[in-house]
Amino acid sequence: MMRKSRWKIYNQTEFYLFIVLIVLSTILAFVNPKFLRLENIFDLLRNYTFLGILALGQLVVLISGGIDVSFTAIATVSQYIMGVIISKYYIDNILVALAIPIPIGIALGLVNALLVYYTRVHPVIITISTLNVFYGFLMFITSGRWIYKFPPSFRNFVQIKILSFTSAKGTPYGLSILTLFWIIVAVMTWFILKHTNIGRKIYAVGGNLEAARRAGINIFRTYIFVYCYMGGLAGLASFVQAQLAQIIQPNAIVGKELDVLAAAILGGASVFGGSGTVPGAILGVLLIAIIKNGLVLMRIPAYWHQVVMGAIIAGAASVTALQMKFKSRRMVRKNAD
Amino acid sequence: MPIKELLNTRMIFKKTQATVLGFILIFLIILMTIMTRGKLLHLSNLQAVAFQLPLLGTLTLAQMIPMITGGIDLSIISTANLSGIIMAFILTKLSGWYTTPLAIVVGVAVSLVVGVLNGILVAYISVPAIIATLGMMIFIRGVALVLTRGYVIAGFPDSFVFIGNGDIFGIPMPFIIFFALILLMLLILNKTRFGFNLYMLGSNITATEFSGVNVKRVLFNTHLLSSLLAGVASIIMISRFNAAQADYGQSYLLLTVLACVLGGVNPAGGYGKVMGVFASIVVLQVVATGFNLLGFSSHLANALWGLILLIVMLINRMISKAE
After folding, report:
1. Which residues of A touch B305 (CB under 8 A)?
2. Sign (positive or negative) of CA dihedral A238, A243, A248, A254
3. ipTM of the complex
4. Do A258 and B314 touch (CB under 8 A)?
5. To the nearest 5 percent, what fractions of chain A are helix, strand and coil?
6. How far apart are CA B143 and CA B145, in angstroms?
7. DSSP character at residue B124
8. How many CB pairs under 8 A join A and B?
9. Angle (CA) A48 B144 B95, round 5°
10. How far is Cα A175 from Cα A162, in angstroms, rounded to an integer?
11. What is the mean pLDDT of each run of 10 residues along chain B (323 residues)?
């Protein structure tokens, strides 16, 4: 029997995350009042859009019971190809620039999907390999050259604000258009997961692969959707990153895999598949953003950041694991009654 | 008996799989030898292989143990670096006859502490190995960075450097250590109760638990042993380089997984032989030396490793489909 109490708000990871987020923000606001300024918050939202979009893609992969660590290489490859095309032919149109990396990302995601489905090897091993293949060949071919001569439309796009204000000192600030990308992707992902056929299939495949197969769900197509979605979002995120940096360095993105994975897992997605929500993935990114921002505002040396991040990942994963244990024990007891 | 037949076909399948892998790797060595015009098989290069192989080999053994249980240990490289840094502190700050043994004991103890933490997370809190060791990897690397601030600690006493660079009757010291470890692992995996339980746990954890095995204990010891081997790898590593740093050998992580899969370890758990892994390490190291002789950049080498791993997995799948 499914009791209603299981769906009460305090039983959900998102609720706890939200509390932790508020407590941390309050502490930070006391330590450094700059933290709660709208300017800082807008900056934070803009700077973490890249991570936020990727975390939403990873969320979908995790729900399906898979994992993808190659997305940083996918982002790097699609970003680099975009950079080469728009700087070489000097294409002064932001929509064309935006349209280049996404299909490349989808194509590379398809490679992952085919390999994962065909070899039946754990996706982490497949995607570690594809990460090395994509990134290794890119570095070999380009020998790591930077791209920085962009047309004006590419340079000016990042300045666009959806909401704009002027600070007391007279400098303008506002909510960046890049953050809008994050919001759109979040809404889209939420809609796909909650209200479409494929979304329900992704949960079903992640929850119990064999049961999903017997229920007639096409596993192959689900994998293709999931890994291509991650790939496409990696392409989009790479556009955002290039906008923020205004320079394309092939070694700028690879190495961020763990941050994204950490954000998705902090947000309550399980590596066993079948669970995870969009609000959770957003809160997970915000939590990481606030912690990192807080460490900077508290003037803690950069060496400590990894210690804190590692402890948080291990801690959050432990809490989730203990919660699951507790839940299953309760269910066993209920069955025994 | 149907079960016996099933076991038999499984053994044959594993054997054909191993043979095919052997062919791929021998083909690679021949290709490399031709491409380097025979330079690859010169004595000096083979000796270089014997010096370099133990580091990758020991790390691969550290990776193999959790992989047999169906897990993975992403923290082995960070663990090796952290113990290396602690050892380096002792080796550079203290001087006396006791420095080298003290450093080794403390270094191994540090790796055991990491093993205990990994073991608690994976066995008793039931965090999936990949996430637990991921968190630990970042955490330990962070600690190593805090301790060193990113600097290299170099210049150890001769008695310690000898471990990585000396030889006895022409046989490199690291190779002797590695050979001893191989024998030890053969003993542990094939002749002890722990080894038996390890394979059983990897093929079916529920069945293992119901047959009265303390699954948690076995998983805990798995991570303890894995980290211990990482600690030994650390001794080989820093004595060979005569330096320690927070960021050494990051690219080895993929290679250890690759070596295990090539050596016939099943990533889903339950199967993996020490000798298979040993053979794959030897070939991998020879091929890596070949890449070096051909002047391939590390990026190209990484890309080729990834490609080889993918091809092997595809062939594995084709064989098991044909069975």
Report:
1. 129, 132
2. negative
3. 0.83
4. no
5. 75, 5, 20
6. 5
7. I
8. 143
9. 165
10. 6
11. 49 57 76 79 77 90 93 92 93 84 93 95 88 89 90 87 84 90 93 90 86 90 95 93 84 83 82 87 83 84 86 82 75
